[in-house]
Amino acid sequence: MSLIVQKFGGSSVADAESIKRVAKRIVETRKAGNDVVVAVSAMGDTTDELIDLAHEVTPIPDAREMDMLLTTGERISMALLAMAIKSMGHDARSYTGSQAGMITDDRHGSARIVDVTPGRVREALDEGAIAIVAGFQGFNRTSKDITTLGRGGSDTTAVALAAALGADVCEIYTDVDGVFTADPRVVPQARKLERLTSEEMLELAAAGAKVLYIRAVEYARRHGVTLHVRSSFNNNEGTLVLPAEHDQEGDRVEEPIITGVAGDLNEAKVTVVGVPDVPGKAAEIFTIVAKTGANIDMIVQNVSAAATGLTDISFTLPKAEGEKVMTALTVEKEAAGFESLQYDDQIGKLAVVGAGMRTSAGVSAQLFTALSEAGINIEMISTSEIRISVVTRADQLQHAMRIVHTAFGLDADEVAVVHGGTGR
Ligand code: ASP
Ligand code: MG
Fold first, then answer.
1. Which of 129, 20, 122, 32 has its CA nearest to residue 81?
2. Residue 285 C-alpha to ligand 1 middle, in angstroms?
3. How far is the CA of 153 from the centre of ligand 1 (A)?
4. How far is the CA of 114 from the CAs of 138, 215, 242, 310, 419, in angstroms?
5. How far is CA 418 from the centre of its chain?
6. Atom of ligand 1 nearest to the CA of 42
7. Is there an atom of ligand 1 within 6 Å of 136 CB?
């Protein structure tokens, strides 16, 4: 008998019909002899609608009340799902995040899980019931208030439950067939991956792949949870995301040199021009940036001009954080002693990811050659052990992704079937 955690995203429970379909799927898993725990998202676009509603009432909704409001979305879907399962003759019980023991810190809107005490979920399973847990929400012990985990937080709920209960697998049901070598809407020849490591998934997600949330993958990697990303609209096997380089049978996971290609149009580039090339200047500039809380990514410093002893430093960051960082730097311009600032939001970031990169040479050369043959200029480069990222012009990004996908031999023979899913 296995213990399976299943997570259903908003698109899988968008209306009553979908809820009944999902209930059937859960019951089938139970009938096959498994213990089943379900984490569920709010129906369809409920969360967005609730956010809009709050903003109609006030421009800056109170954070505590916002969490009270948003957690109602998941309460609706969990109760409906439990009812549907019961009507099919199986025992099911729904639990809010706090009832299920999702203990978090007190950061409303972006709380972190600090402990999981799923006593009631365990009890329900022991009594033969299916446990349905509201995703995306938790409880802070000190404030005794309800919290939310941030957008897409239901993935994290599912993984945290799987870890705490020692589940055999955490199935993430969504409206796409799995994790692809690239976004099939951009690269029609993209292929569904059978498996990849959670480390690769993390790099792909950080580089713009949207099928799984970074925090959930990070949690799975740290706690050794195997994820199975699959469609709730068919019975196809999806993609396994393995926490280690070995699968359950102890076989070494085959490592293609490149597992996937990701693209991101949500970043901008800031260039600090004319920075004195002396010790401490980079520290000063990035301390100013850090104080804004912005999450910066690539950093490039040029060689300083011999005549002036001045250099330029460029970095990328999410567009949404561009304004506050530019403002903070402008205010400190005189004190920090640089000449000027440039802001460029017409950039695209392309990344190739693959654990096999560790053990093979020439991957960068192959990437840069492919881009140059297509006449695509590279503006910035950064690497990790298993990723190479480059910045291009925004309007060249999608073309670049297709070129690179082909160059690394990732193209499928047929065009991928895209169900028009959002990956949620
Ligand atoms: N309902 C929340 C959201 O839309 C959480 C989730 O779907 O995972 O962000
Ligand atoms: Mg949602």
1. 20
2. 36
3. 6
4. 10, 13, 23, 46, 37
5. 20
6. 1
7. yes
Residue-range definition of the domain harbouring residue 118: 3-252
Atom of ligand 1 nearest to the CA of 73: 1
Q: Is residue 62 part of a domain?
A: yes
Between CA 418 and CA 168 the distance in angstroms is: 29
Are the C-beta atoms of residues 26 and 6 closer than 8 Å to each other? yes
Q: What is the pLDDT of residue 271?
A: 97
% of the chain exceeding 90 in pLDDT: 86
Residue 174 and residue 424 in contact, taking contact as beta carbons nearer than 8 Å: yes
Is residue 290, in this structure, part of any structural domain at all?
no
Cα–Cα distance measured from residue 48 to residue 392, given in angstroms and rounded to the nearest whole number:
32
DSSP one-letter code for 321: G
User: Which ligand 1 atom lies nearest to the CA of residue 74?
Assistant: 1
Domain count for the chain, please give it: 1
The number of the ligand nearest the C-alpha atom of 152 reads: 1
Residue 416 confidence (pLDDT) above 90: no
pLDDT tens, 238-270? 999 999 765 555 555 566 789 999 999 999 999
Residues 135, 41: contact at Cβ < 8 Å? yes
Is the whole-model pTM more than 0.85?
yes
CATH of the domain at 190: 3.40.1160.10
Which of 136, 159, 219, 424 has most ligand 1 atoms within 8 Å of CB, for mutation? 136
Closest atom of ligand 1 to CA, residue 157: 8
pLDDT at 361: 86
Centre of ligand 2 from the C-alpha of residue 259, in Å: 27
Q: Give a yes or no: residue 60 inside a domain.
A: yes
Q: Is 210 in the pocket of ligand 1 (CB under 6 A)?
A: no
Question: Each residue of 340-381: pLDDT tens digit?
Answer: 999 999 999 999 999 989 888 899 999 999 999 999 999 999
The answer to whether 135 and 100 have CB atoms below 8 angstroms apart is no
Q: 291 in a domain, yes or no?
A: no
Taking the CA of 8 as reference, the closest ligand is: 1
Nearest CA to ligand 1 atom 6: 152
Q: How far apart are CA 196 and CA 116, in angstroms?
A: 27
pLDDT value of position 358: 87
